[in-house]
Amino acid sequence: MRFFYAPNVDAVHFLDPSESKHVVRVLRAKIGDRIGLLDGRGNRYAGVLTQADKHCCVVETSLEESQPATEFPLTLVIAPTKSTDRFEWLLEKAMEYGVRKIQPVWTERSERKTEKSERWEKILVSALKQSKQLWLTELAPAVPWLDWLNSEEAKIGDGFVAHCESTEKTHLFDAVSTTAPCWVAIGPEGDFTVAEIDAALAKGALAVTLGEQRLRTETAGLAAIQVHALSHR
Fold first, then answer.
1. Which of 24, 44, 66 is the C-terminal boundary of a domain?
2. Interior/surface letters 122-153, b for 16+ CB within 10 angstroms, e for the rest
3. How far is Cα 74 from Cα 70, in angstroms, rounded to an integer?
């Protein structure tokens, strides 16, 4: 069954023009065919096509599954990579793993200073439909690193900053609690500066390592996601 995304699903639901065109022209769906709908807020709907029109398809829906939000979610705080392809790859994998939120941050060594929020949202929605996850990963607007550290959200749960400096660190797997939400920060190419690391530690974050290997930013992001997932298996 092919799945479509709609943030608000009605009992009689009207697909938007782009998805209606896809249903009719690409899938060649007909009246009576079944499709699925995901609202990205924990609900999956079964649908039956009652009108097949390239401008507006109509679907009769019924709730098929409802999933509560993860009690102890992960927020991945990460500096977008210079290569947008690498960051977009990470977005896709984060959605497949069911990461609750991604918070892009600008740091002193960030080589990218612009965001492509509309394109990035589309990548997350596409990954939602492909992976059939029920919760859409939230993509927050990018903020400076120090602004994140001073935010109210950074005070919720446990905070971890992964870095490559030769200082005392705990492996993330040993640090993550299974009874609290958390955020994990990954720096840019070139890593966080010492001052940025110290600022995080001063706010109560714990310095962590992801292993002995030196990882690219997007690889480190995925490693952090995997460690969190394994600790909550």
1. 66
2. ebbbebbbebebbbbbebbebbebbebbeeee
3. 9
Domain shared by 110 and 201, yes or no: yes
One-letter amino acid for residue 198 of the chain: D
Buried b (16+ CB within 10 A) or exposed e, 16-38: eeebbbbbbeeeebeeebebbbb
Which pair of structure tokens corresponds to residue 38?
């995901």
* Collapsed DSSP state (helix, strand, coil) of residue 85: helix
In tens, the pLDDT along 177-227 reads 988 999 999 999 999 999 999 999 999 999 999 998 899 999 999 999 999
Instruction: Tell me what the mean pLDDT of segment 77-84 comes to.
Output: 95
Cβ neighbours of residue 136 under 8 Å, at least 6 residues apart? 5, 38, 40, 41, 95, 124, 125, 128
Residue 149 belongs to domain with CATH number? 3.40.1280.10
State whether 100 and 50 are in the same domain: no
Dihedral sign for Cα atoms in the order 7, 8, 11, 15: negative
Of the candidates 204, 108, 194, the residue with the CA atom closest to the CA atom of residue 150: 204
Q: Are residues 147 and 192 in the same domain?
A: yes
Question: Residue 192, exposed/middle/buried by CB under 10 A (0-12, 13-18, 19+)?
Answer: buried
